[in-house]
Amino acid sequence: MSVMDRIKADVEGHPIVLYMKGTPQFPMCGFSSRAVQALKSAGAGELFTVNVLEDPEVRANLPRYSNWPTFPQLFINGELIGGCDIVSELHESGELARIVSEAGKA
């Protein structure tokens, strides 16, 4: 399976996918840490994460797949939501909780 197929399978196979540096328990950058905290406080229980530091192929190809240059990258129901700034803005507005609560119900 090509790396692009793997990314597509992950994004389409899980309601909430976060490509991040590190893990939710041990984030390796502040942006990834903030995205995880926003998702947790928005009620995201089922969170599928990919540590791009452990998977150089995904790290190199995800920006091509998503057309988004930086990490973390959040996908919900197969759609790119965005990076840390967008996740934080959605969380502050209350919108992230709504999106998270509807994830997987489509």
TrEMBL record:
Domain of life: Bacteria
Family: Belongs to the glutaredoxin family. Monothiol subfamily.
Annotated residues for binding of glutathione: K21, R59, F71, C84, D85
UniProt protein name: Glutaredoxin
Top-level taxonomy: Bacteria, Pseudomonadati, Pseudomonadota, Gammaproteobacteria, Lysobacterales
Pfam family, one: Glutaredoxin
InterPro entries: Glutaredoxin (IPR002109), GRX_PICOT-like (IPR033658), Monothiol_GRX (IPR014434), Monothiol_GRX-rel (IPR004480), Thioredoxin-like_sf (IPR036249)
Presence of the UniProt keyword Iron-sulfur in the record: yes
Annotated organism of origin: Solilutibacter silvestris
PANTHER family, alphabetized: GLUTAREDOXIN FAMILY MEMBER, MONOTHIOL GLUTAREDOXIN-S14, CHLOROPLASTIC
Glycoprotein in keyword set: no
One example GO MF annotation: 2 iron, 2 sulfur cluster binding
Alphabetized Gene3D superfamilies for the sequence: Glutaredoxin
Binding-site residues, [2Fe-2S] cluster: C29
Residue ranges annotated for the Glutaredoxin domain, each copy included: 16-81
Keywords: 2Fe-2S, Iron, Iron-sulfur, Metal-binding, Redox-active center
